[in-house]
Write a structure and sequence with these properties.
Layout lengths: L16 E11 L2 E11 L11 E9 L5 E2 L9 E2 L4
Antiparallel strand pairs: 1-2, 2-3, 4-5
Length: 82
Amino acid sequence: MNENERPKAERVRVRGASVSVAKVAKLGKLPVRFALGLQWMPVQPDRYGQKWNVQVIVAPVLPKLIKGNLVDPSHMTFGLGK
């Protein structure tokens, strides 16, 4: 059953409390962000609702693609460069 199909008195809004930690480390020349998060939902939509959530993130940190000042476009360079 979709949450919008339920009567307004029966609808439950999910609220969560979360904590996460992240670290940027270099793998070779590429900086990579490692993050770990934990989320707890004290109220779930129904008895099969999610109680805990663990998030693991590994994401590359890309360099700035536009170098220069936006106020002075004549000195801006685009791309990854060298």
